[in-house]
């Protein structure tokens, strides 16, 4: 009997209100000592006293996943289903912050989409600190506006699946909700009006002071911040592109320099090989030239020797002829002519008068060595 829903309670979203909590969590709540001792026989009036005693919020904790007192009171509200006015008073309570959180959580589970946005969005301006028990049993610090944002935007909160609600812009399109107006807009408007009044009062002080106050308006500051962010992003893209181009140019110059060095080394090797080849040909030509000079000197030396021998023989013959018997003038003139013809014939037989100058040079060398001439 203690776990049954109030007979006068209405179905919420087509089901028993207690079914909004998963069955496993329901069974853990029913077995918990706090539920049996502190939540038995509570009504809407006496529930407030128990809510005022709360000092933290949370779902389940520990190895066996025990429910927190906050979750037990949420389950009790689903069981007895208090009136909407009582829940709204819970939400509007500013003295006890955990009472406000309890009412907001219950309204998020059972309220309509319009009521959820209408009563929970003003709680964004509440920045009070709250203690939240984590699943490992430790406590963490959170704030009222963070809990409200979790209820409006997340699918799970305190280990309970939140019912689906329409997006705010959908309700605004259907004209079910008015556009949200931030509480800070009044402050902004007052500040802008105050600055405009100061600008009007400072007209006599010159245009510089008027421009100074005009530039410091919140709207101007926001526009200036947006422009600064846009310029910073554009500059970052430009610097990144510039760095990429610089790196590409460096790589290109490095590769081109390496290509030039390879071409320079290749040309140097080519020139060195050509110089070595030319040097070898020059050495061969020089060696051939020296050989021909040596052959010519040897040939000239042989000619001089043969000529000196022939002159010494002719002188000896003349001396012998004069000493033996005088001859006639005609006979003495014919003998040198015969000798010259004989020498010419011998010289022709040597092959030194060959039309090819190379063969003639070779025959001269062979004649000096006593070899047969080439034909």
What would your notes on this structure say?
This is Pre-mRNA-splicing factor 38. Residues 302-327 have a biased composition (Basic residues). Required for pre-mRNA splicing. With 375 residues, the protein is mainly alpha-helical. It has a domain at 17-165. Helix content is 67%, strand content 5%. It has 14 helices and 7 strands. The protein has helices at residues 23-31, 33-38, 44-52, 69-80, 84-92, 97-110, 113-120, 144-153, 168-173, 184-201, 207-215, 218-324, 329-349, 357-369, and strands at residues 57-58, 60-61, 66-67, 129-133, 139-143, 156-157, 160-161. The strands form 3 sheets. Strands 1-4-5 form a 3-stranded mixed sheet. A two-stranded antiparallel ribbon has the order 2-3. A two-stranded antiparallel ribbon has the order 6-7. A hairpin with a 2-residue loop joins strand 6 and strand 7 (160-161). Helix 3 (44-52) runs antiparallel to helix 4 (69-80) and helix 5 crosses helix 6. The longest helix is centred in the last third of the chain and has 107 residues, at 218-324. The model is unreliable at 325-333 (pLDDT under 50).
């Amino acid at each position: 009997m203690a776990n049954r829903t109030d007979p006068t309670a209405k179905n919420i979203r087509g089901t028993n209100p207690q079914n909004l909590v998963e069955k496993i969590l329901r069974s853990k709540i029913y077995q918990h000592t706090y539920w049996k001792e502190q939540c038995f026989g509570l009504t809407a009036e006496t529930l407030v006293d128990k809510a005022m005693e709360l000092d933290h919020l949370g779902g389940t904790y520990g190895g066996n996943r025990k429910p927190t007192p906050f979750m037990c009171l949420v389950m009790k509200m689903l069981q007895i289903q208090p009136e909407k006015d009582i829940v709204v008073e819970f939400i509007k309570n500013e003295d006890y912050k955990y009472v406000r959180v309890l009412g907001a959580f219950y309204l998020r589970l059972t309220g309509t989409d319009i009521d959820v946005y209408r009563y929970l969005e003003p709680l964004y301006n509440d920045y009070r600190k709250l203690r939240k028990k984590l699943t490992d049993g430790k406590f963490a610090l959170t704030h009222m506006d963070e809990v409200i944002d979790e209820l409006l935007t997340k699918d799970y909160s305190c280990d309970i699946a939140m019912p689906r609600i329409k997006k705010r812009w959908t309700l605004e399109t259907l004209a079910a909700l008015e556009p949200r107006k931030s509480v800070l807009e009044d402050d902004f408007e007052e500040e802008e009006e105050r600055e405009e009044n100061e600008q009007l009062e400072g007209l006599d002080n010159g245009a510089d002071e008027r421009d100074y106050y005009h530039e410091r308006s919140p709207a101007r500051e926001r526009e200036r911040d947006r422009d600064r962010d846009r310029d910073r992003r554009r500059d970052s893209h430009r610097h990144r592109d510039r760095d990429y181009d610089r790196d590409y140019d460096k790589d290109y110059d490095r590769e081109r320099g390496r290509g030039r060095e390879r071409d320079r080394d290749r040309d140097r090797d080519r020139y060195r090989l050509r110089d070595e080849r030319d040097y070898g040909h020059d050495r061969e030509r020089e060696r051939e030239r020296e050989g021909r000079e040596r052959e010519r000197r040897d040939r000239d030396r042989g000619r001089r020797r043969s000529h000196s021998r022939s002159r010494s023989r002719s002188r000896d013959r003349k001396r012998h002829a004069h000493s033996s018997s005088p001859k006639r003038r005609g006979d003495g003139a014919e003998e040198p002519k015969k000798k010259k013809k004989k020498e010419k014939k011998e010289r022709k037989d040597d092959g030194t008068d060959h039309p090819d100058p190379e063969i003639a040079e070779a025959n001269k060398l062979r004649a000096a060595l006593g070899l047969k001439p080439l034909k």
